[in-house]
Amino acid sequence: MIQLLEHFTYKKLIRFTIPTVAMMIFTSVYGVVDGLFVSNVAGSESFAGVNLIMPALMMLGSVGFMIGTGGSALVSKTIGEGNKKLTNRYFSMLIYFLVIASIVLAAIGILFIRQISELLGAEGEMVNICSVYGRTLLFALPFFMLQNCFQSFLVVAEKPAMGLGVSLAVGLTNMVLDFLFIYVFGLGVFGAALATGISQFIGAMIPIFYFARKNKSPLKLVKTKLELKPILKTCTNGSSEMVTNISMSLVNMLYNLQLVKYAGYDGVVAYGIIMYVGFIFVGTYLGYSVGVAPIIGYHYGAGNTDELKSLFKKSLILLSATAVILTACAEIFSSALAGIFVGYNKELHDMTTNAICLFALSYIISGINIFASAFFTALNNGLVSAIISFLRTLVFQVAFIFILPLLLDLNGIWLAVVGAEICSLIVSISFFVANRKKYKYV
After folding, report:
1. C-alpha Rg value of the chain to the nearest Å
2. What is the rounded CA–CA span in Å between residue 167 and residue 192?
3. pLDDT tens digit sequence for 223-275
4. What is the mean pLDDT of residues 199-213?
């Protein structure tokens, strides 16, 4: 078993992060399967409805990402400082706080689901589709948030392989239930949401049972009270990831509104496919960043500047090489990827293929930007991380979503993310340079 305190060569770094990368990719794959069943069995209208309401659900679930990433940075630093008792106290109170917050947010979402659907552009029968799917998943929101949170903490616990195992169990459950509920029983979007909710329950409960018992990891759930200071510190540290997820959700809403204007609900379907496909490619960057963050946090807390320099350099090299490969794959297989979802409709297939080709140009850049945000979170600098995420996922994308279509029509919408990533890369490099002496990673 590789421990956080070790020196990480390229081989060891890849071995440690690959389970988290695989976990993120597999999580994306079972999300893709969900979309495949809805699109090919329930139809393109149901698929459009799912993609209209999904950003709102992800926005509510972003609190889980915030506590997971911000909390893992705080807990990793505490481990590096050698305070085991404080480590478990922080870890436990963050999980308990998340349970309370998730129940409150789920109740609010269930109460206003129809109004939210209409606000996102749904009309007529589309409102019912969005409401059924959204309400069902909101009942499982606490489990979804815990699952996301535990993905980060399992890495801190030096159990990335267990995180992968949990994701495999969740994914296989979801895919089997998708087949039963959608294809066999014909439950449509309700079946898709029910399958996802049950799988999220499994993804939350396995880690809870593990950490609640005596285990060999550095983390264990213990009795503790909620303390405001570490919770606020966690929220500050993880705010960048929360900002990222909320911004992505808001941007997705704007994409959908623009696409309804320029291409109707077919545009929403095409964008939904891009998102499903993109989850796999971007999931690689996210998985690496989540996997490497506890290592960075540990060595920062322990004052190991030489190891910090090594991790920074190796990460940039690995991500750059991966970016070239992933972008090439997306361009080469764009038609095949579109065909899996909408092969039954040539016009929609051609639109989606073109959209994937243009959108995929962003993959050559996005890996460095995602790592930059995670890197500063791991250094417990939530402000810089949040600024990078806020500009990348909201400010720049919103600007390009409205500007480029005026110049390039529908293609401008697909290229908006490329413009945003280029601007974000400039910001990321600027912060890397500005903070190099403070943290001594160069």
Report:
1. 21
2. 18
3. 999 999 999 989 888 876 677 678 778 888 899 889 988 998 788 889 988 98
4. 95
47 band by pLDDT with thresholds 50, 70 and 90: confident
Q: What is the dihedral of CA 415, 27, 325, 159, to 10 degrees?
A: 130
Q: pTM of the entire structure? A: 0.75
Residue 90 neighbours by CB under 8 Å, 6+ apart = 71, 74, 75, 78, 230, 234
**How open is the CA angle 301-6-10, to the nearest 5 degrees?**
110
Q: With 0-12 CB in 10 A as exposed, 13-18 as middle and 19+ as buried, what is 153?
A: buried
DSSP letter assigned to residue 245: H
Asked if 198 and 58 touch (Cβ cutoff 8 Å), the reply is no
H helices, E strands: number in the chain: 19, 0
What gap in Å lies between CA 312 and CA 309, rounded to an integer? 5
Are 184 and 152 spatial neighbours (Cβ–Cβ below 8 Å)? no
* Identity of the amino acid at 84: K
Task: Return the ∠ at Cα 202 (arms to 193 and 66), rounded to 5°.
Answer: 80
Q: Coil, helix or strand for 81? A: coil
